[in-house]
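ok trying this again, last paste got cut off
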Amino acid sequence: MARMKPFFAGVFTAALITASAWFGAGAIAAITHDGATGSAVGSDAASGRTTSNGSVNDALTRTRYEVSRVQSFTEWWQMPLLVLVCAVVLVFVAYMYRRDSAELMSGMGVVLAVLRLAAFVGVLLMFLDVQKRTETKVVHNSRVVLLVDTSLSMSRVDADEALAATEGGQRRIDQVAGAMADSKFLDSLRQTHDVELAKFDSDVRRLITLPKLPGGALAADHKSTDSNSEIQNAPSDQQNAVEKIDWRQKLEPQGSETRIGQAVRQIINDERGMPLSGVVLFSDGGQNAGVDVSAAVKAAQEAKVPVYVVGLGSAKRPMNVRVSDLVAPARAYPGDSFQVTGYLQSQGLAGRTVSVELSVSNAGEGPGSKAEPAVNKTERVTLGKDSETIPVRFDIPGLDAAGRRVVRLRVKPIAEDKDPSDNQREVDVDIVDRKNRVLLFAGGPTREYQFVRNMLRRSELAKSGDMIVDVLLQSAGDGVSQDANALLTEFPHTMQELGQYDTIVAFDPDWRELDPQQIELVEKWVGEESGGLIAIAGPVFTDAWVQAPAMATIRKLYPVEFNRRLALLEDARYGSQQPWPLDFTREGLEAEFLWLDDSAATSREVWDSFKGVYGYYRVRGPKLGATTYATYSDPEAAAGDQKPVYFAGQFYGSGRVFYMGSGEMWRLRELDERYFDAFYVKLIRHVSQGRLLRGSPLGNLLVERERYVVGNTVVVRAQLTNAQHQPLEIPKVTLQVTQRDGAPMSVALTADPARKGMYLGQFTVTQEGECRLDLLHPDSPDQPLTRRLQVFMPKLEQEKPERNDAVLKELADGTGGQLYIGVPAALGPQSEKPLVGQLEDKTQETYVAGQKDRRWEEHWMHWLLGIIAGCLCAEWLVRRLCRLA
């Protein structure tokens, strides 16, 4: 019995070694060796490099040993089975050597058992596949997202006396732009965080990401390394680039909606998985569309991200009366009376009666001149409830002399009005002494052609219309009669013949019947003579002439790109089993020439009730620079997410071209005949205005439309000639733009290389009210080309001009953030709780696994094989010496 005690002690020791190998198989994967102080770190330690996702790679490494076989186990029973097998082997070895060594000297059995178990452990380690990997530590910087409201309400200038000292009459957005331009604010944030700037209105757009500055806490831990000098020098160019950013231009308000809840929720969802310290929201709280703020609060709570809110603007609803709009016809005829309608809105003045004055003066007189125009008419108007629109109408008797008139509507100032600068509006009305001559050019007598011809002819005969209609019907034979002013038998051959027309309405014509000289004539008439072309695709001739090589000039006129041969589908898609309504783009909804009623809202209701059309001609898409106004809504007709173009338009030189996918607007008559009439009358007037409204004999100033929303981009074209009536050839001309604040802005119009005498430029309207364009012709500076635009604020952004503290407080309190009223309260030196100090450092460290060490693995296997072979050989030798079988 005494001889057996050492034996069992030895067996117990071997069992412990084996059990450690078995049960430590999973634990080996967690054994690491930090290489931060070893040579593996090298000179890359604390290099501070910024990775593509904004994280900082400090290049610190550690060694990790993994057991890949155990990690590959996918079933719960696989690990217990391995342990059971090892236990069975242990018991079997102990039993066998206890029996075999019964007659041997003390301890010999233990030696044999240990040798056998050591060999088994070696085989087990080979099976478990131990691997060595070197991991790299990656430091993910804490992040802060600055979210700026760029809806149109942020362009307001508050008249609250309490804000005058701190905001100095600035627009709300200018306060934010000033904070961004102050490098101290962004630099203080970048000491600890990566900073991302985004803006929002109806959707979110990320603007710029500013990485953490290298002088922060993390870089300070390793500033003794040689690579730190490289860090210090690197940001200088980046810092200069940040300082050169025009924040006012980057943050220019343009959105017609404010979706605070949607924007904050989207930012938080996009940043999930990142160390987001917080979201800083700059807004007036004018939530008027999208998901409710409560949805953003819930998302922030789940992500544990606080939202810090900087409220802008006045919380008081200012007492104010304003002329929100002034509507007058773009042109009238000598002796014809016309109506002017002004729209008044007020805040806090319900029931108050004001005097509204109307004056009409010649262009060049009035507010822009030394003498004020005489008041023609005055009306007393009782103001409505807050934001209610009150119309006031004036009938203007016929004006005899042709020329441009300036109609001004003005509310006489009252003491309660805090902002008298918006009390008046002006609009230009051109008195023209000739009617619009229209040529209807049709491949065949389609319904669309017949209804348009009859409508225009009725108006002409009644002497109430402003159009004269001639007809060219290609399918008509000799002796065919058409109800028109004149029936043409062939297309005009000279500019003298074609130049008498202001508009051509082309109903699926066969352009191939025109000879090359006539085609060049059409191109020149549109591009140089400001002609208006309405091009209607159809099922008979469109596909034929589109594929003809000789029609390249005609295709160039159209605002769409046509598919060429070997298209997979037929281009023409007519005769659908059901009508599909038109989907209007934002540009289509804002285009007044497509309104079927007096206002955008009522017009949209009419279009929404329109059943739609049954076909269209498939095109590749709009041309660069063209405007898509409406698309065909059949989802099966879409190519991916791009629906077929149905309405599109473009400037071609100084002329306008409008494209329609099929001639089916006659279906509007099902709703009301006047909608069909209004559609074509407004459309013809729109495309022909370049010819009818030409001012100076030295040129013409062209814009897409007369009315714009604040934030829209106005594209300006000028067709200019010199004193010899040849195309002007200088590199650029200067346009003076004067908005409501009276400060003129210079806009350069550069020469169009594709067309002599054509100059192009653009600018953004930033203020509500009238916007005056003046172009000084180099050869006639005393007679500027002038246009006046009407700029208005969308209804959603007008209704609640005051700061909405309830929405802002809900967002800040519900997420654990804080509400600051005004930029100085958040960022100023007198702030009790500075915003920068509230944003915690959420920097995270992770390790990225590298490739396994092949060289170490090779050495490891050599050693295991040597140990296994050595143990087995030693066991065999001992057994032979002890005369065991």
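PB: full thing came through this time. Confidence is low (pLDDT under 50) at residues 1-58, 217-235, 366-371.
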